[in-house]
Amino acid sequence: MSKAYETVIGLEVHVELATKTKIFCGCSTAFGGAPNTHTCPVCTGMPGSLPVLNKGVVEKAIAVGLATNCTITKNCKFDRKNYFYPDNPQNYQISQLYYPICRDGKVEIEVDGKKKFVGIHEIHMEEDAGKLVHDPYDDSSLVDFNRSGVPLIEIVSEPDMRSAEEVIAYLDKLRLIIQYLGASDCKLNEGSMRADVNLSIREVGTEEFGTRTEMKNLNSFKAIARAIENERERQIDLLEEGKQVIQETRRWDDTKGYSYAMRSKEDAQDYRYFPDPDLVPIIISDEWLEEIRAKQPELRAEKQARYKEEYDIPEYDIDILTSSKKMADIFEETIALGAAPKKVSNWLMVETMRLLKEHEMEADELAFSAANLAKLIQLVETKAINGTVAKEVFEKVFAEDIDPEQYVEEHGLKSVNDEGALRKVVEEVIAANPQSVADYRNGKEKAIGFLVGQTMKAMKGKADPGTVNQMLKELL
Ligand SMILES: [Zn+2]
């Protein structure tokens, strides 16, 4: 490569809002469910049906706008985007073109210790489409309208990102803000957060943007990073060969590791946008805006500052604990149940992180309750179980959210704290291992470790190693 190139990336991020009902009707937004069971005349586009706006959607969109430093459009409205596709029963999508609800925002990202802002051009509200289910055996396609009318916001960034790392940092930032707000669970694998990547390259030093392509179908952070690297290389190769980049939409195939053209600008449709005549304009009063602002929950940065102040735990731990709303919630709830912050942090930082990695899970997928973690910590604190047993029990808590007290009881895992019983076993171990006893008496401190191990084994792990150690020393 003879020239140096710079990658210019902008993102369009769709986020499904976590309202209980759809944007223009009372149908459930729950994920899954038998096909076409969360539907009514409105979300299946029946003639004569009329949309009624869900106020909660507006409130969540505003909450996201405020948290991303946007200006809120106080007089906004909906427009119809006309196109035909079988998953779109009305033949138009209700969206916002002329007056999006939020504009001119920004979020700060950090990559390799370098901070920068990524501008947000706008955030608009719209409805999701249904889903086509292709059945290759029957050579047919079926349509499921459960998702039709699920509320979405589309967050359109400025072309401010320059690398895959910056894109991931930006997406992660958005995801955390939105999760902390409770506005969405932002699951890329379930499609509640989806990103389209607009990418072009230009020679370093040039002001003008190159021709961009748009990439769709990116459903994990890993796929996004791979698609960006691949598209950057593809565009550089074209330019180096003296060819041109064509403005087009490309679909990324993550299994095959390449993208292919879906449609070029020439066959881009004219959506014939016009204001939706069935919906009244949305007027956002100062009072309403203040009400929403006052209800904004603690976001990550505020939480980090508070943890630093309230709990004696390292900054590194605070970073990890707050990197998922779910994890932060478990942390705080367990403390509220009386566990020491440092102990809770340890369980989350060590065993929880280990099991997440082992099961290839994200922290957002944690399914155990604070109550059961609190009980487990209590069992260790009162020496009812030892550390080794606790780790075993925690694996059960992690996987099935079992009640540790009940589990320990049922499986007879309680440590034997009856001194007489323990002393008897320790005496037996001493009698059975004269060599180690002699070694210890001759100054080999380490020999006691073997004797502790033998005692623990005889106790089937149900003893406190510290107590055993102490008792051995007394008896020797
Ligand atoms: Zn409906």
Quick description:
The protein is α+β, with helices and mostly antiparallel strands. It has helices at 55-67, 164-181, 221-240, 286-294, 300-310, 315-321, 325-336, 341-358, 370-381, 387-400, 404-410, 419-432, 434-441, 447-458, 465-475, and strands spanning 5-16, 71-72, 75-76, 79-82, 92-95, 102-111, 114-127, 131-135, 140-144, 151-157, 193-203, 213-218, 248-253, 258-264, 274-275, 282-283. A hairpin with a 4-residue loop joins β8 (131-135) and β9.
Draw up the topology in text.
Blueprint: E1 5-16, H1 55-67, E2 71-72, E3 75-76, E4 79-82, E5 92-95, E6 102-111, E7 114-127, E8 131-135, E9 140-144, E10 151-157, H2 164-181, E11 193-203, E12 213-218, H3 221-240, E13 248-253, E14 258-264, E15 274-275, E16 282-283, H4 286-294, H5 300-310, H6 315-321, H7 325-336, H8 341-358, H9 370-381, H10 387-400, H11 404-410, H12 419-432, H13 434-441, H14 447-458, H15 465-475
Parallel strand pairs: 12-13
Antiparallel strand pairs: 1-10, 1-11, 2-6, 3-16, 4-5, 4-15, 6-7, 7-10, 8-9, 11-12, 13-14
Helix pairs in contact: 2-3, 7-8, 7-9, 9-10, 12-14, 12-15, 13-14, 14-15
User: Kindly state the mean pLDDT as a whole number?
Assistant: 91
Number of DSSP strand runs: 16
Structural class: alpha+beta
- Which cofactors or ions or other ligands sit in this model? zinc ion
DSSP strand content: 15-25%
Oligomer: single chain
Strand order of the largest sheet: 2-6-7-10-1-11-12-13-14
Unreliable residue runs: none
Distance between the termini: 75 Å
Rounded Rg: 29 Å
Helix content: 25-40%
Can you count the helices?
15
Domain count: the total is 3
**What kind of sheet is the major sheet?**
9 strands, mixed
> What's the shape?
elongated
